[in-house]
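Pasting two entries for a bug report.
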Amino acid sequence: MAAKRIHIQTKIAPDAEHTLSAEQAHYIGRVLRARIGDMIELFDGQGHSASAEVLALGKREAVVLTSNVAFADDRSPVAITLLQCLSRSHKIDLVVQKAVERGVDHIVPVTSERSLMRLDEAGGAQKQAHWMKVAIAACQQCGRRFLPTITTPVPLETALREVTAERRLVATPQASEPLTAKLEQSAPKSVAILIGPEGGLSSDEIEIASNVGWMSISAGRRVMRTETAAISLLSVIQHRWGDLA
C-alpha cells in the first residue's frame, strides 16, 4: 500500500468519487502500474489519507472511490528548517528529496555570495514549483503524510534574520565546536540549520550569521560536498533529537 500512494490537493471526502488530473492518471497507470479495480492510497499532505479504488483510468483523467479516511501525525518531535544555499540544479533536487525523507518541515533555498545558481523572480517561482514536485514524489515514495513547505529563494541575510527556531546552526569547516556538542544539550522543539553552497560560506556571511544569533558548528574533519553535508547533518539531528531511531 505504501508504494502506491498519490497526493491530491483537495480535501479527501469519505465514500466519494474523486476525479484526478491527466498528470495524476499518468502517474497511477505508468508509474504505479495500477489498473481498474486496484487499490491505491490518497493523501492530502496535511495528515489525512484514504484507501481508494481505481474506477476509471484514461489519458485525460482518473476516477477513484475513497474509503477508510484517516488522520495521523507522523511529523518528527523536532521541527527542522533547512536553509540550503543554491548550487547546481541536480544537487538541490537531491537535497530536497533526501530532506523530505529525513522529515524536514521547512526548506528555504538561499542565495549566497558563492551560489552557482542565480534566479530572477520568475525563475525562482518556477524552481519552487519544481522543488514541490520533487518533494511530493519523495512523500509518495517514503510514506510521509505531511508535505514540507518550500519557499522561493531568498537572500542569505534575509533568511538568517527571518527564520526562527529554538536552535539555529551554521555548518562550516572553520567552526571549533562540533555538532555533537550541541546534541548533548536538551532536545529543542525546533532547529534550523544553514548549509553553504559548493564554495562554502564567506567569512562575512558567517559573521553576519553570528551577529544575529546563529551558532557555527563543525561536521567533522572532512569537508563534505553541500548535498552530503545536508543529508548527513539532518540524519544526525533526527537521530539525536527526532524520530530516527
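Entry 2 (this is the one that rendered wrong in the viewer):
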Amino acid sequence: MPGLESHEGIILVADDNEANRELLSGLLTAEGYQVVCSPNGQQALEQVNSGSIDLALLDVLMPRPTGFEVCQAMKSNQETRLIPVVLLTSLNSDSDRIQGILCGAEDFLSKPVNRHELLARVYSLMRLKHFTDELDHAETVLFSLALSIEAKDPYTEGHCDRLSKYSVALAEMLGLPDHVLVALRRGGLIHDIGKLAVPEHILLKPGPLTPEERKIMERHTIEGERICAPLRSFRNVLPIIRHHHEKQDGSGYPDGLKGEEIPLTARILQVTDVYDALTTDRPYRKALPLEKALVIMREEVKRGWWDGPLVDKLEALVTRSAVPVAGGRCES
C-alpha cells in the first residue's frame, strides 16, 4: 500500500507555482520516489525527452506550453508515449476532462490535491509503468535475437528491416488499420526468429538440404510461434510467424493452408519476402531487375503459390518507386 513502503522511480512535477511544486515534491520524496521539477511546459518536455522519466504530473494551466499540449506531445512521440501522465488542475468542467482524455492522459486530479488519492494514483501508475517496461524489454530482446540470426549470413543483411518496411507500405496501400500495420512491422523483423532452434550446420549449409534437414528447417515457423506466444502484445504477429511459408495451393508449410485460409498478414509478408529475395544478391546470382522479378512472381502466381491481387498491389507499389530495391537474401 502507498505510504507503507519505499518506492522507486523518477517522477516529473511540472507546475508554474513554486509552492505546488514543493508540496508535491515533498509528498513524493517522502515515499521514496525521485522527483524532478519544471516551472513550465518547455522545460517539462526537455526533462521527458531526456529518457529518464517514469511518470509525469502536469499542471494543466502552466505556460509554454500547457499541460494539455505537453501531454499530447508526449503521447505523439514513440519514445515517450508509454510514460503515464496525470493532469493536475483546478478546472472542473467536463470539457476540460474530456480534453485531457483526448490528449492521452492516464488520470486527472483536482487541486488542491488530496495526499492519499495522489499517492494511490501514483503507486498504481508506477506499477503499470514497471510492467510496461518489462514488456518493452522482452520485445527488444526478441528483435535483437532476430537480428542475430540475420547477422550470421552476410547475404541477409538488412533483410528483416526491408521486409518490415515493405509489408507496412503494402498494408498502407490496402488501407488496413493501425493494429495490422504494427503486426506487420513486428512480423517483418522477427518472422524467422524460430531459426534460433535450427542447428547452424543446417541454417548456413551452402548446398541443398536433405529431406531430414528440410524437415528441421521447416519447423522454424512453429518454433517461432512458440517463442513469441507468451507475449500478449504479439498475438497479431503469431499468424505471420507461423504461416509465412504457406502457399495458395496448399503445398506450403507447416499446416498446408490454402487460399484465404492463409491469414492476410502472412500473405502480405509472403509476397514482400519473395520480392526481396529476387531483387537482392545471392551467393549464386546477382539481384534481378525489378521487371524480371515481377515476371517470375507472376509465373509463381500461376503455379498457385502466391496471392495474385497482392502481387498486383506490390507491383503498383514498387513501380511508382515507393519501395527501393536493396541488397540481401532470404529463405523463400
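Dev reply: Rendering is fixed now. As a check, the viewer should reflect this: The chain is about 50% helix and 5% strand.
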